[in-house]
Design goal:
Length: 190
């Protein structure tokens, strides 16, 4: 082996090592802070969140959600969540508006997880979090990681949530005593 071939191999090795180091840095630095997640669109609308007959301002901005009345912030989402979208609607059919958040967070579970899961995953996954308003938001259902992930959702007049997956599949979700469930294609919720 000549000195020239040895130098070429050394440069090739160092180049490959530098490329792997850059890729690893991007993975650790960006994927885990949500930089490669879908783009967010800020939104704001008025809705009677607390049931007092007067509308509050509901805002999704900078991957966070908040509820405002005038200049007062009544509630802000957990800073560990990346809020993609928010609905204010009566999901459970009790006559009062609920907050529904489409959220990205690390891991599939919260503090409680199935006994067979030793450790939660460190990567982001998509979830639906539902809140009643009783002097402030009170969680009443928080999903594990969604599979498949949703591309969009909208509350419909019949009390269901129309969803479209990232693969383009369309379906409806409805409240079923405990949790959201997929509506069978040829029926309606009871």
């Amino acid at each position: 082996m000549t000195a020239q071939n040895s130098a070429k191999r050394r440069r090739a090795f160092l180049g490959a090592a530098a490329l792997l180091l850059c890729a690893w840095s991007l993975f650790c630095g960006y994927l885990h802070d949500g930089a490669f997640l879908a783009p967010w669109h800020d939104a704001a609308f008025s809705a009677d969140v607390d049931g007092d007959g007067a509308p509050e301002r509901v805002v999704v901005e900078g991957r966070a959600a908040r509820v405002e009345r005038g200049n007062d912030v009544l509630w802000e989402s957990d800073p560990a969540w990346l809020v993609e979208s928010l609905l204010c609607c009566d999901i459970d059919g009790d006559g009062a508006n609920d907050l529904a958040l489409l959220v990205w967070k690390r891991g599939s579970y919260g503090a409680s997880r199935p006994f067979w899961v030793e450790r939660d995953e460190p990567v982001y996954s998509q979830h639906i979090f539902l809140f009643h308003w009783d002097g402030g938001p009170k969680p009443f259902w928080m999903s594990s990681a969604l599979r498949p992930e949703l591309a969009s959702w909208a509350f419909e007049q019949d009390g269901t949530i129309a969803v479209r997956t990232k693969a383009g599949e369309e379906a409806r979700l409805y409240w079923r005593t405990w949790g959201l469930d997929f509506l069978p294609r040829a029926s309606s919720p009871l």
